[in-house]
TrEMBL record:
The lineage of its organism: Bacteria, Pseudomonadati, Pseudomonadota, Alphaproteobacteria, Rhodobacterales. InterPro entries: DUF427, DUF427_sf. It holds the Pfam family NTP_transf_9. This is DUF427 domain-containing protein. Transmembrane segments: none annotated. Residues 14-104 form the DUF427 domain.
Length: 113
C-alpha cells in the first residue's frame, strides 16, 4: 500500500477556472502519495459550489476510498469531472473528508498566492 502523508499547506491558495476564482483558502491540505505530485485539497466551504455539478463518475482508490467527481461550469465551457472529493475516505485519508481537489490544466489552475 502506498504511504499517504497529509499536512496543512502554508499560505493562501486559489483555484481558478475559465478566469473565474472558484475558491480561496488558507486552510488547504496537501496530500502526498508515493512519488506522485502532491495534491491540494480545498475545504468545501471555501469553494463556490454553485459552479460545480456532481457527475455520475466515481473512482475507487485502494488507499483513499471512493472518489465522487464534479464538473465545473464556467461561462465559456464545462470542465467534465474536473474536481473530486472523498465523502467517506479511508482511515488513512480521513483528514480530506469535506475537501475538494481539482485536475489542473489549461483552463483550471490551483496556485499559492
Amino acid at each position: 500500500m502506498t504511504n499517504i502523508t497529509i499536512r496543512k499547506a502554508e499560505g493562501t491558495w486559489v483555484v481558478r477556472a475559465g478566469g473565474a476564482v472558484l475558491g480561496e483558502s488558507q486552510n488547504v491540505l496537501e496530500l502526498s502519495e508515493g512519488d506522485a505530485e502532491p495534491v491540494i485539497y480545498f475545504p468545501r466551504e471555501d469553494i463556490a459550489m454553485a459552479f460545480l455539478d456532481e457527475s455520475d463518475k466515481q473512482a475507487e482508490d485502494t488507499a483513499k476510498g471512493t472518489a465522487n467527481f464534479f464538473s465545473i461550469v464556467t461561462k465559456s465551457t464545462t470542465l467534465e469531472n474536473a474536481a473530486w472529493s472523498y465523502d467517506a475516505p479511508s482511515e488513512t485519508a480521513a483528514r480530506i473528508k469535506g475537501h475538494l481537489a481539482f485536475s489542473t490544466g489549461e483552463k483550471l489552475a490551483v496556485e499559492r498566492v
